[in-house]
Amino acid sequence: MSQYVNEVLEGLKKKAPWESLFIQAATEILHSLDPVLEKEPKYKKHAILERLVEPERAVSFRVPWVDDKGIIRIHTGYRVQFNSAIGPYKGGIRFHPNVTLDTLKFLGFEQIFKNSLTGLPMGGGKGGSAFDPNGKSDGEIMRFCQAFMMELFRHIGPDTDVPAGDIGVGGREVGYMFGMYKKLANEFTGVLTGKGQYWGGSLVRPEATGFGVVYFAEEMLKTKGETMMGKKVAVSGFGNVAWGAVTKATQLGAKVVTISGPDGYIHDADGISGEKIAYMEEMLRIDRMSVAPYAQKFKTAQFHAGKRPWEQKVDVALPCAIQNELNLDEAKGLLANGCQAVVEGANMPSTLDAVEFFQANGDKILFSPGKASNAGGVATSGLEMSQNSMRLGWTAQEVDARLHQIMVNIHKSCVDAAARFGTPGNYVNGANIAGFLKVADSMIDQGLV
């Protein structure tokens, strides 16, 4: 690790040692930039790393709301506006009991590079609250979303910051927040993405992240002369990302044999297809915290309580649930079982030591970081922004074709950047370097702001 990178990381650790997720993300990204920093001293001269790891703005605010029993509840809302060098801040809003400022800083930092890779003019940001929508009524969720937006609306706009959905925030929540924004701002603009089809939303957006993950996996396999056809695939999660990944992998001829939830995972040796994929959407409405009902409905499946799917023998692993869901021991197990590729669909789902293990064994197992392979969601959000700006809507086929091409382009950018800076085949370095160069050069062009 270069002295410059080490100084910046040590500074972060001294400033906020409790921000473990953010420090983890920064360590992985900055370490991979060593080859660039050695060749290009201008980035140290302009203090790019110090500026990059400090959000341009981080807002916290009180969110008071009333539950169905008439009890007043108080939550804290956040929006981290990390970097706007190449476009308005762009990134999801997450409602999950584990959300902290640390969570959102790590996600917002990753978003800078992910958005840069798409080739679209979007900066990086993230927001959310430790509000748990699971078990809440529609009325409670509406009141919380409206209260959240009553403060957030001051800090966002179609040319300033365009939030989207994330864990715990789907079409319902986006709708409630958009409605309140429209009322408060007295304007109808594309200020949020993930909107409903009839009021500015884009077709393919709900499944876009999962589709993009599989498109990226296909490009990775092509480098070894293979495709998704006939591959056995493990997917974690059962939300929108997993649903999209299962759908597209099945369309491309793969057999998906697992999905998972906080309660464990199911293994379906017959493959998850047809009505089983449709049932994934119904499961979310039943209980966002439980995947067990799948095994109760489909007798071909077995439920493994309290476990994760990486113990299964598969050709491709797609972690699509949440951060740090795949550790070093599980990474070793995947390699030992002959897994050919691990393609991240969630944000930082692999622990740092697991990532290092995959990189050290790059000749045996392909590995892609989420900022590259799960960029399909924000890319399609960018396409939704374009449609809103032009006051038109594209067909599902048009959006899917554009998404596919963006993922092909991201893959090429990663491969080219890794080779250019002496680490061919290293998707982690390639993704971070390709994303960094565009943002860093833009920051230099715009002066010290």
Describe the structure.
The chain has 449 residues and is α/β, with parallel strands linked by helices. Among the domains are: 55-188, Rossmann fold (3-Layer(aba) Sandwich), CATH 3.40.50.10860; 208-373, Rossmann fold. The protein has helices spanning 3-15, 20-32, 34-39, 42-45, 48-52, 101-117, 138-152, 171-185, 208-222, 240-251, 275-286, 292-297, 328-336, 352-360, 370-373, 376-390, 396-420, 427-445; strands at residues 57-66, 72-83, 89-95, 124-129, 161-164, 232-235, 255-261, 264-268, 301-305, 316-318, 341-343, 366-368. The strands form two sheets. A seven-stranded mixed sheet has the order 9-8-7-6-10-11-12, with helices on both faces. Helix 6 links the parallel strand 3 and strand 4. Helix 1 (3-15) runs antiparallel to helix 2, helix 6 (101-117) crosses helix 18 and helix 13 runs parallel beside helix 14. The relative contact order is 0.12. The mean pLDDT is 96.
